[in-house]
Write a structure and sequence with these properties.
Elements (H helix, E strand, L loop, with lengths): L2 E6 L2 E2 L6 H20 L2 E9 L3 H9 L4 H18 L6 E4 L3 H17 L4 E11 L4 E3 L4 E2 L2 E2 L8 E10 L5 H10 L3 E3 L1 H12 L5 E2 L1 E3 L6 E2 L2 E6 L1 H6 L1 H4 L16 E5 L3 H14 L7 E5 L2 E3 L2 E2 L10 H8 L1 H12 L5 E2 L2 H31 L11 H19 L3 H22 L1 H6 L3 H22 L4 H11 L37
Parallel strand pairs: 1-3, 1-15, 2-3, 3-4, 10-16, 15-16, 17-19
Antiparallel strand pairs: 5-6, 5-9, 7-8, 9-11, 12-14, 13-14, 17-18
Bound molecules: zinc ion.
């Protein structure tokens, strides 16, 4: 089995990260963790897009050099992603030498393979500094970029290098229709197909005399256009063009936001076709986090501080809420009321309560040693088996919202099992065999739930797993172990409260 290589979009270094960035990163992280759980050899890349024009402006405002500014921003972003428990094993910055090498090598490769695909021409258009691209009439409303209604479009005229994107429409349609390049979810695929059917125009891929950027190979007057530069990060992080990059490339999954599908599902694969390189296998475009019905973004001025959101109930709770309530497919709303409600109902009263009572009863009635179960777990065991299968299907399809909903659903079922079997009555009545079976069934499914929840709430799962006294670490458990998980003899301890309610300890 080869490497499962997944990436997130790289972010502009022009302001602190917000909840919109966080949704993408924790969603991709949940996929990476799930893939490791399946046993895949995962390579997970995140990083920073540092050549944008807005860097020059932001650095000037802060009275520092662009270099000092991007160093500071990269540190800020990396710190947030660490707080949110992102498990990326690489972090690329587009100002790094390895990336500059990759960009130059890709351009030279296109020049060799398809020399007619690169040419020089004059260009005039309306440029959005928020998107860092020239906008077409359909992307402009009331004289402003649709994505950035508060920014002024800049009329720009210059002589640029162009990429013959128009030559690739049919090939891309073919790849998407056959599934060789999967664009998900379906609503995004349909948008991309419509875009391709309308026909493509060539794109400018350089800027004149921009001091902050990668020099265009063979032209001292021009720098590589920031988007053309940025997309190549996915390839340069594999070590391209050095030998061995093919062990990682092509990417199995690019996770991006729905606003940049044109770059990732049209321009990027066309660049790769021109260079005769393999295309990514899948692009997943998630929706936006909305705050009172509007997109969360810096320029729209509606951002809620990410730090405040993390501090409210902890990093795991925020990860859970973003993926369970906002979701990873369509737009979803973030409100403090819903965050608090989900925290209490799902995490404290359902998941946390189940773990706590199951372990406590095992400690009280069996000195913490998990007894061996009877031959048949009945309905409860069948519900658990059904969840295991459904969870795998949902997560394989990147349906994170469904995957995590299944975890809470089974935890609810397990709490009901506690009520049905009433172990405290069995203990009082000295019905030992029934008590053994009830506790064994319960702990087995609690252990399964802790594993299934780990991609979403990694540190709380780790705490719960450690209290289970299992025969191996959580990192060594695989999804395939769960159906016949044997918990007999595990030595459980009373766990710390996983999700304390506000105002209590
Ligand atoms: Zn824009």
């Amino acid at each position: 089995m080869g490497t499962f290589y997944l990436t997130t979009a790289i972010d502009y270094s022009n302001g602190d990260p917000h909840l919109g960035h966080a949704l993408e990163k924790v969603g991709a992280d949940a996929i990476a963790r799930y893939r490791r759980l399946r046993g895949d050899d995962v390579r997970f890349l995140m990083g920073m897009d540092e050549h944008s024009q807005s860097v020059i402006q932001a650095a000037a405002r802060a009275k520092v050099t662009p270099r000092e500014w991007v160093d500071r921003m990269a540190q800020t972003f990396a710190d947030y992603w660490r707080r949110l428990e992102c498990s990326n094993d690489d972090w690329i910055r587009t100002t790094e030498p390895r990336h500059v090498r990759g960009v130059v090598a890709l351009l030279e490769r296109i020049q060799q393979q398809r020399p007619d695909d690169l040419y020089v021409a004059d260009y005039e258009g309306l440029y959005c500094t928020g998107c860092e691209e020239f906008k077409q009439p359909a992307q402009i409303a009331n004289g402003h970029c649709i994505e950035h209604p508060t920014l002024e479009l800049v009329r720009t005229k210059e002589r640029n290098h162009f990429f013959r994107l128009s030559a690739y429409g049919q090939q891309l349609l073919e790849r998407i229709r056959t599934g060789a390049l999967r664009v998900e979810p379906e609503i995004r695929r349909n948008e991309v197909v419509r875009l391709l059917e309308d026909g493509l125009q060539d794109v400018s891929i350089s800027r004149q005399r921009l001091p902050w950027g990668i020099p265009f190979p063979g032209d001292g007057e021009q720098t590589v256009y920031v988007w053309f530069d940025a997309l190549i990060n996915y390839l340069s992080a594999t070590g391209f063009p050095e030998a061995g990059y093919e062990r990682v490339w092509p990417a199995d999954l690019h996770v991006i936001g729905k606003g940049i599908t044109r770059f990732h599902c049209v321009i990027w694969p066309a660049m790769l076709l021109a260079a005769r390189l393999e295309l990514p296998r899948e692009v997943w475009a998630h929706g936006y986090v909305q705050w009172e019905g509007t997109k969360m973004s810096k320029t729209a001025g509606t951002a809620v501080s990410l730090g405040t959101a993390i501090e409210r109930h902890g990093a795991d709770a925020l990860r859970y809420f973003l993926l369970r309530e906002v979701g990873f497919e369509n737009d979803g709303n973030f409100t403090w009321e819903r965050f608090d409600a989900r925290y209490i109902a799902d995490l404290a009263d359902t998941f946390g309560n189940l773990v706590s009572r199951s372990l406590s009863m095992t400690v009280s009635y069996r000195d913490g040693v998990v007894p061996s179960s009877g031959p048949d777990g009945g309905d409860f065991e069948r519900a658990a088996q059904k969840t295991l299968a459904a969870y795998g299907r949902a997560m394989d399809a990147n349906d994170l919202q469904q995957g995590v909903a299944l975890v809470i659903e089974l935890a609810t079922r397990a709490n009901r099992y506690v009520e049905e079997t009433a172990p405290w009555k069995l203990a009082k009545g000295k019905r030992d065999a029934e008590l053994d079976a009830a506790l064994a069934n319960l702990i087995r499914t609690v252990a399964r739930l802790v594993v299934l929840a780990a991609p979403f709430i990694p540190s709380k799962s780790e705490e719960a797993w450690n209290a289970l006294g299992a025969d191996r670490t959580l990192a060594r458990v695989r999804l395939g172990d769960l159906a016949n998980l044997n918990v007999t003899g595990w030595k459980v301890a009373k766990p710390p409260p996983l999700f304390p309610k506000p105002g209590t300890d």
